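Hello again, I could really use a second opinion on something today. I've been staring at a protein lately and its backbone has me curious. You're getting the sequence in one-letter code plus the fold written as C-alpha cells. I'd be grateful if you could look everything over and explain what you see. No rush at all, and the record is pasted right below:
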Amino acid sequence: MIPVTERAARTGIPGGTRLIDRYILRETLKPLAVSLAVVLVALLMERILRLFNLLAVHGGPFDMVIRMAANLVPHYLGLALPAAFFISMFVVVSRLGEDNELDALQSTGLSVPRIGRPFLWLGGGLMLFSILLFGFLQPYSRYAYSAIYHGVINAAWDATVPESAFVEAGDGVMLTADLVDPTGRALERVFIHQTRPDGEEWVTTAATGRLGANPERTHILMTLHNGVQIRTTAAGEPHVLEFATLTLDHPFNLDVPPFRARGGSERELTLVELWREMHDPTSLLSPRVLAAEFHARIVRALTLPLLPLLAVPMGMAAKRARRGQGVAMAAIILVVYNHAIQLGESLADVGRVPAPVGIWVPFALFGILCLWLFRRAQQRPGENPFASTFERVDDLLQRLGQLWRRRPRESKA
C-alpha cells in the first residue's frame, strides 16, 4: 500500500498538499492528546491523594476535592503542553522518516519548511491558546484554588472523625479513634491530645466515646467512657485521672473567615492587570516582580511556535537512530531552556538584571538555535546536525555494550 503522503504528493495538484497538511495535523493531534491526557492524569492523581489527606484531617465534603483538582488543570496544562507538543511532532516526523514518507515528499519537490508548515500553524494556534491560558485562565484558577484551600483549612470542625486518622479540631485539640461507625460519631479506642492556653498538656484515652452537640448547638460535646486522663502542668508535673464517664466540650462555630480579594499575588493577576500594575506608581506589589511575571508569561507562550523548528530536524535525524536518544536530548534542551527562563525571572525579581534582559535573552538564544537547526535541515537534509550526534551516541553505546559482553569472558580467563 502506498502511504497517504506519497499518494498525495504524486497527484501533482494543490489539493494534494492540502491533503498532506491535514494528514500531518491529524497524525500530530493523536499523540498530542494522548500525551496531555497521560501527563495531566499523572500530575492530578498525585495532588488528589494529597487533597484527600487534607480533607481527612480538616474535614469537608468530597466535592471540594473535585473543585480543587479542577482548578489545578490550567496550571498542569501549562506545564505539560510544551513537552507534549514537542513529543507529538518528534514522533510523527520520525515515523514518517522510518516509513520513507519524508523521502517521497522531498522527491516531489516539497521542501522541509513546506513539510513543517502544518506544525508551524499548529504551534501558532497553541501560542494563542497559551496566551489565554497563562494570561487569564491560570490567574483565576490559582485564586479559586487558594480560596477553596482557605475554606478547608479554616472551616469549623464538623464533629466527625475518620477511622485511624488524626483530626485537628482547633484550639490545640487533636484526636483519633481506631474504630468509627459509619456516622463518624461513635468511637472506640479514643486518643485525644490537648494543648491548653495556660501551657498544660492533656492526654486522654478512653475505651469508647460519643460525639454530639449541646441543645443550643454552640459547643461540641464528647462523652468518653472508661478512660484515663494525664494532665501535665507547665512545670512538667503529671496528674493522672481515671474516669468512668467524662464529657469534653469544644466551641462550635460554622462561620469561616472571609478570604482576601484576588490580586494579593502577582500570579493571580491577568496580563492586562499585570500591565496596569506595572505602570501604577502606587501599586502595593513590587514593579520588578510584576515585570518578571509579565515577560515570563509572554515568553512561555511565544516558545511554542519555535518548537517545530527543533522537533522537525530532530525527528528527521531520528529515523536512522533510536527515538529514545532524540527524546532524551530534547528533554535536556527543554529543561535547560526552562531553567534559564526561571533563573532570569528570579534574577529580575531581586533586581539583579532587568526583566527584559533576564527573560528575553534565553528566549532569543533558544530561537537562534532552533532557526539555525531548521535552516541546516533545509539546506542539507542528509547532513542533519542531530544525525551525526545520534550516530556518535549510537556508536558509543555499541562500544560500551561490547565491552560489557567481553568483561565476563576476561574474568573467567
Summary: The mean pLDDT is 83. The longest strand covers residues 219-232. The chain has two domains: 4-152+263-407, 167-251. Residues 4-152+263-407 form one domain.
